[in-house]
Specification:
two-stranded antiparallel sheet, mainly alpha
Length: about 110
Amino acid sequence: MKYRYKKNGELEVFQSIWTTRSHTSFVSGLPIREFSVWNFAHVLNKNVYPDQRLNEKNIVLLLPAEHFLLDHGTQKDREVYAQKNQPCDWSLIDNLKDELRSSLRR
C-alpha cells in the first residue's frame, strides 16, 4: 500500500534532511538504504507540538521499526530492541527531547 502524503510541508523537510544528513539511524547507527517517510520521526510529538512539525532539529532518521517503537513501543520493547541491535542508545532521543523542550522555554 502506498502512503498518501498530506501536503503540509513535511515531505519537503524530509527531502531536505535526506540530502543533508547521513543515512543512518539516530539511535542505532544502522544504515537506512532508501528514502521513506517512515524513516523520519518527530522527537517532540507533532500533535502536541504542532509548531515543531517542520523544525528539522525535531526530526531524526530512524529505521521504520525504530520509528514504530518510538511512537508505540514501551520502554521494555525499546530495551529488548537495543539488546538485539547494539549499539543502540534510546537515551539519545530523550536527551534531544529535553534539549528541544528547553529551547522552547527560552
